[in-house]
Amino acid sequence: MLTCDTLFNKKLFIYQRKGGYRFAVDAVLLAGLTRVNPSDRILDLGTGCGVIPLILAHRNLGKRIVGLEIQPDLAGLAQQNVEVNNFTEKIQIVEGDFRVITAEFRPGSFDLVTCNPPYRRLRSGRLNRDEQQAVARHELKSSIADVFGTASALLGHGGRLSIIYPATRLAHLLVTAHHYHLAPKHLTMIYSDAASVARLVHLECRKGAGEELRIVPPFFIYREDKTYTEAMRLLYEDGQERDGEFTQSLVK
What we know:
Layout: E1 2-7, E2 12-17, H1 25-33, E3 41-45, H2 51-58, E4 64-69, H3 72-84, E5 91-95, E6 110-115, H4 131-137, H5 144-154, E7 155-166, H6 170-179, E8 182-191, E9 198-207, E10 214-215, E11 219-220, H7 230-236
Parallel strand pairs: 3-4, 3-6, 4-5, 6-7, 8-10, 8-11
Antiparallel strand pairs: 1-2, 7-9, 8-9
Helix pairs in contact: 1-2
């Protein structure tokens, strides 16, 4: 059974399986915090239902977007979402394993790679019985090293990788980035609210860049009254009216 959620004051429609993997606010954060140039050729690794390419296309960001998804059901759903929202000329959905997809694209084919990867190691936490959710949450089919390896192979010199990840695994993220010669350049710490510890990080890395890392002001999702901050609200909306039909948890 599918549900239809909306973003941007009901201008963007996203179909998802009711009992399967459903995107969370971390995907919205990644799409909103990623810096995109008009000429960027973009690859979204593990695109799921296609939410990140859809948001970028809705905002008219980038030149061309490829969404890559290993799970056939999700790839089919992403293609359906692309067609429903009339983005077939800008977004291409490819079903495949990004650990070996480098054979299908030439080195340097992309200027920007985005990824909202599985957060949990194989032996951390109980695996969800639903396969879609298990693959999205645990490193069953890919690891963070696979993400960086693919990005390094497919980005041209100066290309960027934009990724969101748990703050508790930031050290691992930085070490992996350096191993694959993708220099961390732009770091945002993400908090539920001003009284919380950081829950997520958004990191932009650049291929072939120097070591200087810019740590920008923190991003807060909620105010003290548990309503969205202005910064968070703008990631969900085009205008001033709140899209009240869509709510998600902080971490998938």
